[in-house]
Amino acid sequence: MALDTQTGIAQYDAPEKDLYEVGEMPPMGYVPKKMYAWAIRRDRHGDPEQSFQQEVVDVWDIDSHEVLVLVMAAGVNYNGVWAGKGVPISPFDVHGQDFHVAGSDASGIVWKVGDKVKNWKVGDEVVIHCNQDDGDDEECNGGDPMFSPSQRIWGYETGDGSFAQFTKVQAQQLMPRPKHLTWEESACYTLTLATAYRMLFGHHPHELKPGQNVLVWGASGGLGSYAIQLANTAGANAIGVISDESKRQFVMDQGAKGVINRKDFNCWGQLPTVNTPEYNAWLKEARKFGKAIWDITGKGVSVDMVFEHPGEATFPVSTLVVKKGGIVVICAGTSGYNCTFDVRYMWMHQKRLQGSHFANLKQAASANRLMIERRLDPCMSEVFPWNEIPAAHTKMMNNEHKPGNMSVLVQAPKTGLRTLEDCLDARK
């Protein structure tokens, strides 16, 4: 299929087929009947090596406001582990499809657009944010779409995610791809970056401000590495918490003001019953942790914000060490969901507890502009080939992954490629 070079799209010839091998490029805009996908099915819920199986499935149909994207690379997130295990809920109880394709991060090329899509065209290179909604309620029209009753996460609460040659998304999910990044770098950051952005800047009046201090749990992970970088862009100070001394330098290199190793303390897990000897021992150790924060921020200077996502293991300490009138903002519970805390410190010190969930388009787009402007680093640590998607999730499940974010190649034939032309040349 010959293409007009004036469109800015590479010229190439390719046959029209019903199914293409992974990495094989169809003619621009030609939609085959079938595609390869890593599918999860209800009857094989379990660890990733069991739940993820490669299958040939139908390519998605799209409606008038949707877009079909050829996936060049995809990001690995913990919700893929949850989807495979079927916990805390099975995704099939949400979307009702026969199979589930996980993956809530991607870079790719617009391949087909619905007839009411105006802002995107075939050939556009994009990244995808993972929030979907129906767009017809008051929160989507003047409020916050994250509060919409129709709000859902693509690739987790929908079954048409990025671990397939093609994915189906709403047109409002698309954002321009940073052209200075490779396909795999572009694919790894949107979910964690936009989540971190909303946590830090999305909950008025507790937006992180210049000169303030924020405690960042899991500082070497995807969320944490972006929280530190975003704090720097705001002129704030990030104090990173790690659990492995080998990650200290990585966190400092992201711009942390200081780093604390939580293994130097013994105050983790659910809160002991207040005013028992166990509680008194916990409080002594938690205050020791608080002093470690002061060693970085200055004596008596508690953090204005705690960037929370471990949940059960760390929540009692988070609510203790944040300053009077400060905020603990939480987006996950990777160590457990049964959070406990001493509520006396919450009400007497008038602290705020704030839940946070991904981001709306404006927040995701604001974060994406920072990446396009090269003010942030994607912190990509590992890239896996298509056939190792289950192994990548096993590594994440076991917390064996390197600091930063992981990507997998889909249609991009190898790492280091930045354009469609690069991919075509690499296939020769």
Describe the overall structure:
With 428 residues, this protein is an alpha/beta fold. The chain folds into two domains: 34-188 and 378-427, Alpha-Beta Complex (Quinone Oxidoreductase, Chain A, domain 1), CATH 3.90.180; 193-355, Rossmann fold. Helix content is 26%, strand content 22%. The protein is built from 13 helices and 18 strands. Strands 3, 5, 6, 9, 10, 17 and 18 form a seven-stranded mixed β-sheet that branches. Strands 13-12-11-14-15-16 form a six-stranded parallel β-sheet, with helices on both faces. The chain has a three-stranded antiparallel β-sheet with strand order 2-1-4. Helix 10 (343-348) links the parallel strand 15 (322-330) and strand 16. Helix 5 crosses helix 6 (222-233). The longest helix is centred in the C-terminal third of the chain and has 21 residues, at 277-297. The model is unreliable at 1-6 (pLDDT under 50).
